[in-house]
Design brief:
The protein has about 190 residues and is mostly helical. The chain has helices spanning about 20-25, 45-50, 65-85, 90-100, 125-140, 175-190; strands at about 105-110, 115-120, 150, 160. A two-stranded antiparallel sheet has the order 1-2. The relative contact order is 0.16. The structure holds zinc ion.
């Protein structure tokens, strides 16, 4: 396991992927005003995303699974919003939800000379959700959990990895930062 953020890491289900990329790809399945579409709108959408993420699920996905995927995603999106200092993010509900589902998707340890990996102990869709939880555990163990944030631009809310030295990043791109300061500038002019 590399020490660089998002370094090489086997997601445990099929292809190599990075844990931070996986978490960001998950929260970025949410729709946004600036053009992202809902990826988890039906069973096919969820399956397509899982394939893109390198997670193979060898069993049919149901409508209830799609709802569960959206709930899991939204809980992580709330946590990442809180990492960006959004006081109104419903953190307690998200933490409570994640606590309740952690028991449903148990993880196991794989201990080797190289280190300790957390992996899902299940297959199918529970295994896919477990892989997401394992990715979160990996990022936290590496001390970079709080660097996963949600862009503060209300028309974007994209997940991003804050690479700034002092973890002060608030926007996914300079474009989003500029858009928000322009909006604030215009509203100041209006009130003045
Ligand atoms: Zn943004």
């Amino acid at each position: 396991m590399g020490s660089d953020p998002g370094g090489g890491y086997s997601c445990g289900v099929s292809l190599e992927c990075t844990t931070s990329d996986l978490m960001l790809a998950l929260v970025n399945t949410r729709p946004s005003d600036n053009g992202r579409v809902e990826r988890f709108d039906d069973e096919a959408g969820l399956l397509r995303w899982l394939t893109e993420a390198g997670i193979s699920v060898d069993e049919p996905v149901t409508g209830a699974d799609v709802v569960a995927a959206r709930e899991l995603r939204d809980a992580f999106a709330t946590i990442f919003r809180a990492h960006c200092g959004c006081a109104d993010a419903p953190v307690e509900a998200a933490e409570g939800y994640l606590r309740s589902i952690a028991g449903r998707y148990p993880l196991v340890l794989r201990i080797t000379v190289d280190g300790v990996r957390v992996k899902t102990s299940q297959t199918g869709l529970p295994g896919a959700f477990g892989t997401v939880l394992a990715a979160a555990a990996d990022l936290s163990a590496r001390g970079i959990w709080s660097r996963l944030k949600l862009c503060k631009n209300p028309s974007c809310y994209a997940g991003f990895f804050d690479k700034t030295k002092n973890q002060s990043g608030q926007f996914c791109s300079s474009g989003c930062g500029a858009q928000v300061s322009m909006r604030a500038y215009r509203s100041r002019i209006k009130t003045a």
